[in-house]
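Here is one chain, start to finish.
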Amino acid sequence: MPRAERRPRVLLLTSSPLDGAEGCDVRLATDILKGLADVDFLWFTQWPRPRQAPPERGRRVRILSRDGVPHVPERLQSASAGAVFARRVDLVHAFLTIGRTFPAFSRLRPLLFGTRPVVHTVPGVMDNRHLRHARPLGTTVALSESMARRLRAADFGDVRIVPPMIDLDAWPYLPRPQGFPTVLFAGHHDPHGGAETSIDAAAEAYREGARFRLVLAMRGRPGQDTGALEEALRERAGAAGLPDVEVRGYVDDMPALLASVHVLLFPPVLLGGKADIPLTVLQALASGRPSILSDLPQFADFGHAVLRAPAGDARRTGQQLAWLLDQPRSWDMLAERGHALVEDRFGPERFAARYAALYRELLS
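Its structure:
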């Protein structure tokens, strides 16, 4: 059948199954799968048991995985299956963070994908040094203007910007919680990832008279001793004099947690492998939860909808937290600004339209 008379076939290339452990790459690929109805997708599924309910659309390609996390075996299977199925589709859409192994992978692009057009959505860059020897896989998509500049400076050529999306039906605007305030940090156990700064900032706010409960929702990475890392955070909070701190592991019901939260703290010094536009921040803003971020260039896209403090400056971050908890009118203003920003710039219709246009351009 001529291509014009059938729907295009697209391989969603991720380093782990779409129904495995959640990550930004998996979330972005899933949003594409659900948002573009006129495309036939192939995607990787966890076998033998999916970790979560699999998407209902598209054709599944099995990857053997015990926990759905992108360990080395999952990555190798992804690359191998991608090379096989790339010959059976019209376009390959890769969702790959640029890390230590990406430069070698990028040099295998002709062998893996042949002449098929490739879209590469870059959730993040682990370290700028990885860009020196990396090559573009095809048309590159950045999540933020800051990331686009970094990729263009590294000779990635054609770089587009498509911010991630947030489903406003799944993350509706919520009224301010009643009762004792709760402040949330949600992130990974990464060096300079923001958890330690959040504890020190909370201690500064407490010394200034603010009273609240601090919740740290932490996600581990493969190979980490999460129990020891969580205990270290509890010890740091105790040494800082914080009386009401809870350190959690992975949170299954993030909507319920955000519904109970007054403020989101997210003050990383380095993003590492996290997305340029963290999904947790989008979820908080959509829910009407004011957020205090560090002043990393990637976060400039949030404008005046958030508060920002110098990266690593726990004192300034803590002062902003104490001020925000004491200013209900400012809290309301930031809650409304954050929701309006997400609705205007990160909605699903805009996200789907941009990728649909990109697909049409590359397949024409």
